Amino acid sequence: QVQLVESGGGLVQPGGSLRLSCVASGSFFSSAAMGWYRQTPGTQRELVAFMIVSGITNYLDSVKGRFTISRDNAKNTVYLQMNSLKPEDTAVYYCYARKGSTTYWGRGTQVTVSS
């Protein structure tokens, strides 16, 4: 059973930073693409950032230069460092892992950017 558990969300002022973490169970981690989506009420999830096995990354245009995705295969963990946060970054952030045609999801962590 694969489980993904996110942490690190919270309330932060505009311009602040947060680091999200996602710990994965199981032995598949090093061979899976990992990433983060986010969702606000009434909208579809949008892909924020992902990293494939080779280390290539991609980002949503609105977060480029502010967010950084990284992974530590020894810890089965993927991170999302979020800097210069804006109110429009407020959302529930979901970690995912994809291997082949199978995608696993975490339960999400709330990020609120507000003064």
Structure report:
This protein has 115 residues and is an all-beta fold. It contains no helices and 11 strands. The strands form 2 sheets. Strands 2, 4, 5, 6, 9, 10 and 11 form a 7-stranded mixed beta sheet that branches. It has a 4-stranded antiparallel beta sheet with strand order 1-3-8-7, with no helix packed on it.
Radius of gyration in whole Å, from Cα? Answer: 13 Å
Order of helices and strands: EEEEEEEEEEE
If helices are DSSP runs of H or I spanning 4 or more residues, what is the number of helices?
0
Helix fraction bin: under 10%
Query: Mean pLDDT, nearest integer?
Result: 95
Residues in β-strands, percent: over 45%
Q: What would you call the shape?
A: globular
Unreliable stretches (pLDDT < 50, length at least 5) are none
The major pleated sheet works out as: 7 strands, mixed
Structural class from helices and strands?
mainly beta
How many strand segments? 11
N-to-C terminal Cα separation, in Å?
40 Å
